[in-house]
Amino acid sequence: MDKMNQAIEKMKMLVGMEVEDEQQAADEESSLSFMEDLNRNCALTTKQRFYGFAICLSAGLTCTLLSMLVFFNPVKFGITFTLGNLMALGSTAFLIGPQRQVTMMLDPARIYATALYLASIIIALFCALYVRNKLLTLLAIILEFTGLIWYSLSYIPFARTMVSKIFMTCFDTEF
User: Mind giving me the DSSP string for 104-130?
Assistant: First the structure.
């Protein structure tokens, strides 16, 4: 094992990477955050990432589409629609990794969109599972759908600005 570590250190020096001493490596390893530890231990191949993404996205889209079958029962609709959204959101973590997903979600450009979307998911689940009021659940699902659109637009450059300007011109009435 020691020879393997020495070979890895030589390869690092050849490609220009910094070579760490054992004490520094031990200190850094003990200070890893949860997400870094998760990314390090859950290394997937590219093929596995695409399979995970496809399966999770397919399951999410299936739940979302099946929720239309129970549209007139807002409680069941809210649960299946929200579950589908969560699976579709989680599918992107397979492509880019959970740490990068969370980092991108907390980026200053989309922190408000993320907060709105996650809060609307929590509100929809609360209304569907705890309150069990059809009208409140339906309103929460509309809020969730709006949050999903706004969150999705945050990944397209200038999309939120364009949509905001379109709404401002459509609803701008001068007397």
Answer: HHTSTTTHHHHHHHHHHHHHHHHIIII
- Contact predicate 117/147, CB 8 Å: yes
Q: Is 44 helix (H, G, I), strand (E, B) or coil?
A: coil
Give the global pTM.
0.67
Taking the C-alpha atoms of residue 28 and residue 21, their distance in angstroms, rounded to an integer, is 11
- Torsions phi, psi of 113, nearest 5? -65, -40
The Cα 56–Cα 54 span in angstroms is 6
In terms of Cβ atoms closer than 10 Å to its own Cβ (0-12, 13-18, 19+), residue 141 is buried
Smallest Cα–Cα separation from 134: which of 77, 175, 173?
77
Contact 64, 84 (CB under 8 A): yes
Digit-coded pLDDT (tens) for 24-52: 555 555 555 666 666 666 677 888 888 99
